[in-house]
Design brief:
The structure holds two protein chains of two kinds. Chain A is built from one helix and 21 strands. Chain A is mostly beta strands. In chain A, the strands form six sheets. In chain A, strands 3-4-5-6 form a four-stranded antiparallel β-sheet, with no helix packed on it. A four-stranded antiparallel β-sheet of chain A has the order 7-8-9-10, with no helix packed on it. Chain A is globular and about 50 Å long. The termini of chain A are far apart. By secondary structure, chain B is of the alpha+beta class. Chain B has three domains: 100 residues, no CATH class; 76 residues, no CATH class; 112 residues, no CATH class. The longest helix of chain B has 14 residues. Chain B is globular and about 70 Å long. The two termini of chain B are 34 Å apart. The interface between A and B is large, with 71 and 70 residues. Strand 1 of chain A pairs antiparallel with strand 19 of chain B, so a sheet runs across the interface.
């Protein structure tokens, strides 16, 4: 479902007998995963109408609980990015790929491929136009126009969020960030140790706390304050 | 960036034009010597700032003062200046310069454009072909009614160079689409409903939103008893999240807050769970696991678990 907060209008995004999950939105386009009786599909559609685009399809094998599946999805006006995780191989590792599709040309390609341990964290994605941020271990950024990838942070990281030239993420329950394109990764506030989810909202950094006196509550701090002296 | 394309802004600007006369300072304030107090906002403008305000369009161009003079570090060069916020501009005092260059305007359009569209700008822009004037300094073109307005209202000194071409922008406040163009110190907005009047081109209240960005606190409502707030997501104008009671099926709702007004929002609180919101501008989408959802009947939960397990 969807709602325009400016007008109060509620509208359906994807309906039907299938199971839709993990919606994401950029501009006036929405992407989501849809599970049917025989496959999982990654879909994109404009809220203004037009054709429904099936970006990728993974089969569901009857009786197999460990089939291929989609990981995270990220969307911008120009690109859609997603990860695919395959069943365990002989070494009990999951091969995975990070893929993108140019929404203008409809061309898809693989950005990076690797393997995941069964208990390891899955890659998480953030996308701003042609800048793709992905966490797996550290934080990497790939320019989808040039194909160049560089590491921004090497410690374990999750929850990347990018808004304009500001990129933030969580590492060991602390908040980190960088001012692109040339800034250096820095801890945004030394006394934040309970962050478990983070976002950028206007000029604010907002995060969810797990533990501590603010457990279960959101907390906000001005971006200008946490990035002071950048 | 928070910028106005709202009915409220338009109404205020139009009201200002009708009451004050376009380009005049209008009988809106109590003047005394080189200072003028504005009961509408409770602030006073003095000295060089008042002189600049009077000589550069007054109320219609600059808007009401929102603050007294204050000391602030410039985001442009890191230097501390005496500043004063107005609805559509922020004045900086540069005593190192002789008049009329001792008062300069902050680059609100630069801040706003970067805040909203990042370093890569807006895709699919189209230069105006109506009486166009090209600016090699920023490689953008000014034309039509926007060029007329720019030339009649201070030009480079007041508005700055164009930072974009004209493009369609959906208002974060009222969902209406307007043709806009960003400049270093302003955003022009074309209002077809005002064609033929001085209000055909209106300025966004960049000063208002800049002041809110820097000085207004964000008030996030506390969760209800026994409930927790999860998965915040934000846009330039809104913050949304999931709120629910741990372990209680059907308790999850989508809530939010308007960053410009601090108004709390109940976005979706129907039967069943609503969760995992995503937002762009004013548009929110979410997973609806309401009781009427047809998916559960068609798809086995084992398969749903297979899909969902990688997000756990």
């Amino acid at each position: 479902m969807g709602k325009d907060l400016a007008t109060g209008t509620t509208f359906p995004v994807a309906v039907g007998a299938n199971y839709q999950t993990r919606p994401t939105i950029a501009g006036r386009s929405v992407a989501w995963l849809e599970l049917s009786s025989d496959s999982t599909r990654l879909m994109v559609q404009s809220l203004d109408g037009g054709p429904l685009t099936i970006v990728a399809t993974l089969p569901l094998t009857q009786g197999q609980s460990d089939g291929p599946t989609f990981g995270e999805v990220a969307l911008s006006d120009t690109y859609i990015a997603w990860s695919e995780v395959a069943p365990r191989n002989a070494n009990r590792l999951h091969p995975w790929t990070l893929r993108i599709m140019n929404r203008v040309t409809q061309r898809s390609n693989t950005v990076v491929a690797g393997v995941l341990s069964p208990s390891g964290t899955r890659p998480q994605l953030a996308l701003s136009d042609h800048q793709l941020v992905w966490t797996l271990g550290g934080v990497q950024i790939t320019d989808l126009q040039s194909g160049a990838t560089r590491a921004l942070f090497t410690d374990p990281a999750s929850d990347p969020v990018i808004q304009g030239d500001v990129l933030v993420w969580i590492s060991q329950s602390s908040l980190w960030g960088v001012q692109l394109p040339s800034g250096t990764a820095r801890q945004l506030a030394a006394n934040i140790t309970t962050a478990t989810s983070v976002t950028l909202a206007g000029g604010w950094l907002v995060w969810q706390n797990a533990g501590g006196p603010q457990d279960g509550r959101l907390t906000a701090r001005r971006l200008a304050e946490v990035f002071v002296g950048r | 960036m928070k910028r106005s394309t709202s009915i409220g802004m338009g109404a205020l600007a139009l009201c200002a034009l009708l009451t004050a006369g376009f380009g005049s300072t209008g009988p809106v304030a109590a003047a005394q010597g080189d200072s003028r107090s504005f009961p509408e906002t409770g602030h006073t403008v003095r000295g060089p700032f008042l002189q600049y305000w009077q000589q550069h369009g007054g109320l219609a161009q600059q808007g009401y003062p929102l603050t007294e003079e204050l000391q602030e570090v410039s985001d442009t060069n890191g230097t501390t200046y005496t500043m004063q916020y107005f609805e559509r501009a922020v004045f900086e005092l540069h005593p190192e310069n002789a008049a009329p260059y001792n008062v300069q305007l902050s680059l609100l359009g630069v801040f706003g454009y970067g805040h909203r569209y990042g370093v890569w700008g807006v895709p699919n822009q189209h230069p105006s072909t109506e009486n166009p004037r090209y600016f090699p300094q920023t490689r953008h073109t000014l034309g039509g009614t926007f060029r007329t307005y720019w030339e009649q209202h201070g030009g480079l000194a007041q508005q700055g160079y164009p930072l974009s071409e004209e493009f369609q922008e959906v208002s974060a406040l009222n969902g209406q689409t307007y043709t806009v163009q960003y400049f270093q110190r302003a955003v022009f907005e074309r209002h077809p409903e005002n064609v033929g009047t001085p209000a055909e081109v209106l300025l966004s209240q960049l000063g208002t939103f800049r002041q809110r960005d820097k000085y207004q606190n964000l008030v996030i409502p506390a969760p209800g008893a026994g409930r927790v707030q999860l998965g915040p997501r934000g846009s330039a104008s809104y913050l949304v999240w999931t709120e629910g009671t741990p372990g209680q099926v059907g308790s999850q709702d989508i809530l939010g807050v308007n960053l410009q007004t601090n108004q709390p929002l109940t976005i979706a609180n129907g039967l069943g769970d609503q969760s995992t919101p995503a937002i762009a501008g004013s548009l929110v989408v979410w997973e609806d696991h309401g009781c009427g959802r047809p998916a559960a009947a068609a798809i086995s939960w084992a398969k749903i678990w297979q899909l969902e397990r990688h997000f756990r």
